[in-house]
Design a protein that fits this description.
Helices cover 78% and strands 0% of the residues. The chain is an all-alpha fold and 258 residues long. The chain is elongated, with a radius of gyration of 33 Å. It starts with a helix and ends with a helix.
Length: 258
């Protein structure tokens, strides 16, 4: 049984070398048990037939799994089994049933995973559109999953939203004057609806930035990575000095009247 299990596991994983080695050991054991009276002839023949059939099924099932997701190649693979002279009609029937059962399970799981990926992508797209880096969101993994499942349109939407988020991050680090100059430049070079949409988003960001800078320039600069956060600690004079330096830097950057 140990050699049989080794052989079937190897066949299921496409490891033909281990399958062949374990098969030889299994057959040697079968022969030993038959010669020493532990197996009669009919049982020996039946067990050998079962072993061969399972091995054939597992090897073909492994090969077929490599084609899941490519229906044309999988269909040709099954046609080749039908036309093969290496298998009995019974074996052909068992192989095809095993492939169909495994394919249906794979397809159902893939459908669920695709729906989950699309849901995650929509979450990322909404967050990126607002300039937010969503916690726990794996952009590279989600994008790869979308492309692997053929969701190219959704993948393009996710990439576009990510690029806008990155552009918003860089844009928010500019001064108000620089923001306005960049908006003017973009308006001159806009060619399609996507460009106009980007300009609208960046224009809204510029208006919000001007408001926030007017209310609390230090908080705005820390929030958008213009300066590092530096909480005031009265027990540490250097923290006060650092905040003064930041204030002087921001006064010049944002042309503040203080």
């Amino acid at each position: 049984e140990e050699y049989k299990n080794q052989a079937m596991a190897a066949a299921a994983n496409g490891d033909l070398k281990t399958f062949a080695e374990a098969s030889v050991k299994w057959r040697e054991n079968e022969e030993y048990m038959f010669n020493n009276g532990f197996l009669d002839g009919n049982v020996k023949v039946r067990r050998a037939k079962e072993f061969t059939n399972i091995g054939v099924i597992q090897q073909n099932l492994f090969a077929a799994k490599q084609l899941f997701g490519n229906d044309e190649r999988l269909s040709n693979f099954i046609k080749n089994i039908d036309n093969s002279k290496n298998y009995t009609p019974e074996q052909k029937h068992s192989i095809k049933n095993s492939i169909l059962s495994e394919y249906n399970s794979w397809h159902a799981l893939n459908k669920v995973q695709a729906a989950d990926t699309i849901k995650a992508a929509d979450f990322g797209i909404q967050a990126f559109a607002m300039g937010i880096e969503p916690a726990g969101f794996d952009f590279d993994k989600t994008l790869a999953s979308l492309k692997a499942s053929g969701q190219n349109e959704k993948a393009a939407q996710l990439e576009s939203a990510f690029n806008i988020k990155e552009e918003m991050r860089s844009f928010s680090q500019l001064s108000i004057g620089q923001m306005n100059e960049e908006l003017k430049r973009l308006k001159k070079t806009a060619t399609d609806k996507e460009d106009l949409s980007r300009i609208k988003v960046l224009g809204q960001l510029a208006a919000a930035a001007e408001k926030e800078i007017g209310e609390d320039p230090l908080a705005f600069a820390e929030k958008h990575g213009v300066i590092q956060e530096n909480p005031l600690d009265l027990t540490k004079p250097e923290s006060f000095n650092n905040r003064l330096k930041n204030a002087a830097f921001l006064q010049q950057k944002y042309q503040l009247d203080y």
